[in-house]
Amino acid sequence: MTAGRYAPSPSGDLHVGNLRTAVLAWLFARSTSRPLLLRYEDLDASRTVTGSDRRQREDLEAVGISFDAEPLYQSQRSRVYDDAVAQLRQRGLVYECFCTRREIQEAPRAPHAPPGAYPGTCRQLSPDQRRRRAAQRRPALRLRAEVDEYTVTDRLLGQITAAVDDVVLVRNDGTAAYNLAAVVDDQLTGVDQVVRADDLADSAPRQAYLRELLYGAEAARAVEYAHVPLVVNAEGRRLAKRDGAVTLEQLAEQQVTAEQVRDRLLVSLGLPPGPLPQALEAFDPAALPAEPWVWSL
Ligand code: GLU
Fold first, then answer.
1. Cβ–ligand 1 contact at 4 (below 6 Å)
2. What are the sequence ranges of the domains in the chain?
3. 40: CA distance to ligand 1 center in Å?
4. Does domain 3-76+229-294 fall into CATH 3.40.50.620?
5. Are the C-beta atoms of 132 and 83 separated by less than 8 Å?
6. Which ligand 1 atom is at minimum distance from the Cα of 182?
């Protein structure tokens, strides 16, 4: 099995930056004869906006992106995530973590520890300490990582080496964490091509490491990554909803059609405007612009 995927969080309408990434996911998949899958990353119920899954899909279709299977909803897949955690647990690779965000920020850490990495506070709790903490707080589950860093190869960025820390596998409200869910879903749906915005490039090594632990080195090595440049606003910051008219609905109010948006996205990628299948003929990953694209209306 082999596939590409687009994996939005249904937390509101897609903006032109999200649509551009989706166009690239489509181009990469189609140009390598892979089906493209749609996966809604809706594990964080507090961020999910009812109906935005349908709106996102309509907007993707409006710019010409079609998918080859019914969408997957992560919120309906706790069984497969539980199975993966059980497998790691059996191998002694899971531990309970009682730290609050604040405790993690304030904990002493090794001088060269990468910023934001978990300092390992709960790794070696004695049974007694664990009991005491468990009386006060529900634990998250963390991976007992056995490496400090890991390297993947990216079609656009070359080698990406990044820190692997003891990532959260299950949050303390019991839901699977992003990295675990993404890795399990990618594997079980045959995804071997990951195209997404380059602000997630540093997640690729830890996801590949987790994939290796769960499914073997060959499965981890088989994944092709392409982390694509972000779309930014006039100040050079990652495009956001507050940056004016950035969704198809808002742009329609300014008399900009979905076809015009598609054409602007394609031109920004150095591709001819028009229907996506036509752009596909001219698509060459090596010729993609490497800089962020500045959006302005
Ligand atoms: N759900 C993530 C996002 O919307 C994408 C995660 C991924 O592609 O791995 O930014």
1. no
2. 3-76+229-294, 78-170
3. 9
4. yes
5. no
6. 9
Q: What angle do CA 187, 162, 148 make, to 5 degrees?
A: 90
User: Could you tell me how many residues make up the chain?
Assistant: 297
Among 129, 113, 123, residue whose Cα is nearest residue 93 = 123
What is the value of pTM for the model shown? 0.96
The answer on pLDDT for 114 being more than 80 is no
Q: Write phi, then psi, for 64 (nearest 5 degrees).
A: 105, 10
Closest CA to 167 of 111, 90, 88, 112: 88
- Residues in Cβ contact with 41 at an 8 Å cutoff, skipping those fewer than 6 apart: 7, 8, 9, 10, 74, 178, 181, 182
15 CA from centroid of ligand 1 (Å): 14
Task: Among 5, 179, 196, name the best residue to mutate to test ligand 1's pocket (greatest count of ligand atoms within 8 A of Cβ).
Answer: 196
pLDDT over 80 (residue 115): no
Q: Give the pLDDT confidence of 49-107 residue by residue, as tens digits.
A: 999 999 999 999 999 999 999 999 999 999 999 999 999 999 999 999 999 999 988 88
Kindly give the interhelix angle for 52-62 and 16-31, rounded to the nearest 10 degrees.
60
Element (H, E) at 57: helix 52-62
- Contact in structure between 6 and 34 (CB atoms under 8 Å): no
In CATH terms, is domain 78-170 a member of 3.90.800.10? yes
Q: Using CB atoms within 10 Å of the CB of residue 100, give its burial: 0 to 12 exposed, 13 to 18 middle, 19+ buried.
A: exposed
CA geometry: angle 236, 38, 5, nearest 5 deg: 65
